[in-house]
DNA sequence: GTTTATACCACTCATATGTGTGGGTGTCAA
DNA sequence: TTGACACCCACACATATGAGTGGTATAAAC
């Protein structure tokens, strides 16, 4: 992922400035704010930069609207992924990021079907889901064999692995913990959603 | 956490509209866009709503700037945490969220000391860190006993638990894997940062 | 040698936009 | 009954703002 490689130094500075403004103030800057920040005396100069950045695919501009700059995915938002552990030293220069951690996949940005649940208990530790972890869940009413799901069993929500096997004309569905100390669950349940991510925060 | 409880139904609708616009289009709406959306024929009406929402602490308004609406923390951004698993059914009404998952803690929003590394190997599985997981790392040059850290050993980055014991005038420092099959590491290393979070995505 | 891209400038123009003034109705508590 | 508040309206005003036109200079590319 070659990020910010095909830009000139000045173009990169302008792009970074816009990113900063959005991150810090929540809204993109106006053309004149950019001009003032860089000491440009003409808005045309900024327009040239925006055109260049637009042409290179770093941003989108909605015409006729104020603060219309919209950064595109490749502009490198979010947390930079700088490398792999156990694979040599990561290059700590942010410009060399392999990619960017895209938390939008999780956010309820484009839909309101995503929510989070805090994990209690240890029934999924072998799947790396520990007490206190946060499961990020997408509401859905169907699942495939092997999916991690949130199920409602006897009025209690739980995270388990969804199992579905077709055995000689019969469909077997059950829930599987990821802990040797627990037994598979064959009770009736209702499917709430699928776990699309797990997040753990260390204080 | 009583979210959106002290608002009238209409005020809530306006707030939700603003949230939606920010999420979907990246920038807050203008006063006239709000008015148009709700069928108000006067911008003054919107101003009244914004004043009410501002007074109740849901948003901030920067004067004299276009699209100046800034949502405040309590306005309930991010992914709603709807409850705990294994603790009764979660209330799937978003208005009843216990809180909101704050990914800002991780983001390099206000600093550029945060980055991510993809985990290779199984040396930390007992700490719930699996191959393919993404470690979110804050750069720092010191750590406390028990911290999960990213260390550079012989030109290779690795995640391990930092151990530091003072034993009769001596300071012992070593690195501890979270896997019985691996041995503690007493080699020299340099500290890159502390793991402040772990993220796992399921496709 | 011509073209293209980058990197600036000055100036104008239409309008998008926040703000202000002043008005109205209804409800509910003091 | 007075006041605070929610909920609407019309209209005016200054300016913030995107967009347009038309320049200059440099350097690389073809």
Q: Would you give an account of this structure?
A:
The structure is a homodimer of 203-residue chains. Chain A has 203 residues and is of the alpha+beta class. The first copy, chain A, has three helices and ten strands, in the order H-H-H-E-E-E-E-E-E-E-E-E-E. A six-stranded antiparallel sheet of chain A has the order 5-6-10-7-8-9, with no helix packed on it. In chain A, strands 1-2 form a two-stranded antiparallel ribbon. The radius of gyration of chain A is 24 Å and the shape is elongated. The two termini of chain A are 31 Å apart. At the A-B interface, helix 1, strand 3, strand 5, strand 6 and strand 7 of A face helix 1, strand 3, strand 5, strand 6 and strand 7 of B. The structure holds a DNA duplex (30 and 30 nucleotides).
For the biggest sheet of chain A, the summary is:
6 strands, antiparallel
Work out the helix count of chain A. 3
Strand content of chain A: 25-35%
The Cα radius of gyration of chain A reads: 24 Å
Mean pLDDT of chain A: 78
Report helical residue fraction of chain A. 10-25%
Terminal residue distance of chain A: 31 Å
The two chains with the largest interface, and their residue counts, are: A-B, 75 and 75 residues
* Secondary-structure element series of chain A: HHHEEEEEEEEEE
Low-confidence stretches of chain A: 1-5, 74-78
